């Protein structure tokens, strides 16, 4: 039997022993907002404190959201959009690179605009809107100072064709390899300005809202002028660079960006929920030019609307997987991130990869959410951005669906900015489907699977058959069964191999999988399967 022995302990040593340690979470008075002031997101994972997104108490209303497919990233954005509309009647505009939000927007009663063969833009159309794009402010905001700020803002800036051309040329610099061709940039700008003059439009005077759409030049008009200037100069590298870029954005038989009377900003921004589906455009650069054009027009509308003292967001813009324009400091995503607060515009930039977002977006976002991330280098980037201990960011690899590591940048200096874990609560998160390969499971969301199968060329009936196979197997389907179904649809082994590799199945697992399939087709056991390579040397 043991015995207790008294020990002498100094007070300085006793003070180092923390008998009661509060979990690493902000205090409840920071996480909870007064009624009507914030949007409910969920509860903190440790103390189950209700968490509200109250942008009035944050540095700005902008969000950066990262997380792998199936982690709950899109689910969070949908929850935020829905509740912002209910709380503040805030309209939302989604720039959807992959077409992921279209089914949800239509089911929610919103409007989907699909750019591509059925709809296009005239990227040179800079006529002012004929109707108000932003919700009216309440009586609290219609004081003399607000009116004066709005008047001065409108008087400071005139949106002329020349300024629109400068914006477009900046987009070309972001999307094209023009860094070593300054003369090519000048040739592009001159052809665009001349296209306005040919329509008897002074590039330095703002257009009237009543001007007919057919009188506005298009990119094809500028391309024709550029071809005429080129003449027979076959060895002019700068002219070739300018022509190549313009021809890329004016492909034969398509008028994505040269559609006279095409969609305008007032067609894309309105009450409720609007999603611009960019997946119908054939190239990433095409989708990026469309996104940049909409953001540029929106930024000028934001500036002309004047400063806001409203207690609600006037507009929430979502850019999902816009990696090509989210990395560049010249992008209008960055400009809106810097200026949006004073105009009550919120911007949510989402991506699967933290390296897709510029450091300016990370440093200026008032709210940062990180859902599950498996790659170590991604977690290290976030650890440095969050200034969080390694023990906390290591949990990103094991987070459940709908759980995120959150950092709020509070408006008042001195408030705790420690990151914490949040369990998002809203509509039920979509439980990912699983593809079982030996001893591992690969998660994939239903809509992501349908999109990938459609890209393989499967019909709607065939895609529904694959989805039914998952449902019959309780959302977890063996990779062998999936490969067998796809083979039955006529897909080759190489196509199925590339498909599964794109889902994240390791190569060694794929080798074993296709070995078993080959053995089954031959009616032998896998261990009896022998690969024999025969070569034949021709006699000289």
Question: Major β-sheet, in short?
Answer: 11 strands, mixed
Number of strands: 14
Tell me the strand order in the biggest sheet.
Answer: 2-1-11-10-9-3-8-7-4-6-5
Helices, by number, come to 21
- Principal-axis shape equals globular
Average pLDDT confidence is: 80
Distance between the termini: 93 Å
Tell me the structural class.
alpha/beta
Helix residue percentage: 40-55%
What is the subunit arrangement here? single chain
User: What portion of the residues fall into strands of 2 or more residues?
Assistant: 5-15%
Task: Identify low-pLDDT runs.
Answer: 139-146, 148-157, 532-536
Rg result: 28 Å
Description:
By secondary structure, the chain is an alpha/beta fold. Among the domains are: 73-349, no CATH class; 433-527, no CATH class. It has helices spanning 11-15, 28-31, 73-88, 102-107, 144-156, 161-175, 182-198, 219-230, 237-249, 265-268, 284-304, 323-326, 332-339, 359-364, 376-386, 390-393, 446-455, 460-472, 479-488, 493-502, 507-522; strands spanning 39-44, 50-53, 63-66, 92-96, 111-114, 273-277, 315-320, 345-351, 367-370, 403-408, 420-424, 433-437, 440-444, 476-478. Helix 8 (219-230) runs antiparallel to helix 9 and helix 11 (284-304) packs parallel to helix 13.
């Amino acid at each position: 039997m043991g015995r207790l022995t008294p020990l002498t302990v100094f007070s300085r040593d006793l003070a180092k022993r923390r008998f009661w340690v509060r979990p690493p979470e902000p205090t409840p008075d920071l996480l909870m907002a007064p009624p009507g002031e914030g949007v409910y997101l969920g509860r903190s994972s440790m103390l189950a404190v209700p968490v509200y997104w109250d942008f009035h108490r944050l540095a700005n209303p902008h969000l950066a959201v990262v997380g792998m497919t199936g982690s709950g990233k899109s689910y969070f954005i949908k929850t935020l959009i829905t509740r912002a509309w209910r709380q503040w009647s805030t309209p939302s505009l989604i720039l959807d690179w992959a077409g992921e939000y279209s089914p949800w927007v239509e089911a929610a009663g919103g409007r989907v605009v699909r750019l591509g063969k059925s709809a296009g833009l005239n990227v040179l159309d800079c006529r002012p809107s004929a109707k108000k794009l932003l919700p009216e402010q309440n009586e609290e905001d219609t004081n003399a100072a607000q009116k004066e700020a709005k008047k001065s803002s409108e008087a400071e800036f005139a949106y002329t064709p020349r300024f629109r051309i400068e914006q477009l040329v900046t987009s070309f610099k972001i999307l094209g390899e023009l860094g070593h061709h300054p003369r090519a940039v000048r040739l592009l700008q001159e052809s665009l300005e001349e296209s306005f003059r040919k329509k008897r439009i002074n590039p330095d005077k703002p257009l009237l809202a009543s001007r007919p759409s057919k009188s506005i030049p298009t990119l094809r008009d500028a391309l024709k002028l550029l071809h005429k200037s080129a003449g027979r100069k076959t060895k002019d590298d700068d002219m070739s660079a300018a022509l190549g870029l313009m021809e890329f954005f004016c492909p034969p038989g398509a008028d994505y960006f040269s559609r006279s009377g095409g969609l305008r900003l007032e067609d894309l921004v309105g009450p409720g929920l609007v999603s611009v589906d960019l997946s119908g455009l054939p190239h990433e650069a095409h989708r990026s030019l469309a996104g940049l054009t909409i953001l540029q027009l929106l930024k000028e509308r934001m500036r002309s609307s004047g400063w806001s003292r409203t207690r609600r967001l006037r507009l929430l813009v979502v850019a999902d997987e816009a990696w090509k324009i989210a990395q560049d400091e010249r992008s209008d995503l960055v400009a809106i991130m810097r200026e949006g607060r004073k105009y009550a515009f919120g911007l949510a930039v989402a991506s699967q990869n933290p390296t897709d977002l510029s450091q300016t977006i990370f440093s200026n976002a008032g709210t940062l959410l990180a859902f599950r991330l498996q790659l170590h280098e991604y977690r290290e980037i976030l650890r440095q951005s969050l200034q969080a201990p390694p023990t906390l960011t290591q949990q990103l690899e094991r987070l459940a669906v709908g759980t995120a590591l959150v950092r709020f940048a509070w408006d008042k200096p001195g408030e705790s900015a420690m990151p914490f874990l949040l369990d998002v609560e809203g509509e039920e998160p979509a439980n990912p489907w699983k593809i079982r390969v030996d001893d591992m499971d690969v998660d994939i969301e239903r809509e992501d699977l349908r999109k990938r199968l459609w890209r393989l060329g499967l019909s709607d009936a065939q895609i529904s058959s694959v989805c039914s196979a998952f449902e019959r197997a309780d959302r977890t389907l063996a990779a062998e069964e999936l490969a067998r179904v796809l083979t039955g649809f006529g897909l080759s082994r190489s196509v199925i191999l590339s498909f599964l590799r794109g889902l994240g199945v390791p190569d060694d697992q794929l080798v074993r999988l296709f070995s078993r399939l080959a053995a089954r087709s031959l009616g032998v056991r896998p261990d009896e399967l022998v690969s024999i390579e025969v070569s034949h040397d021709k006699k000289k």
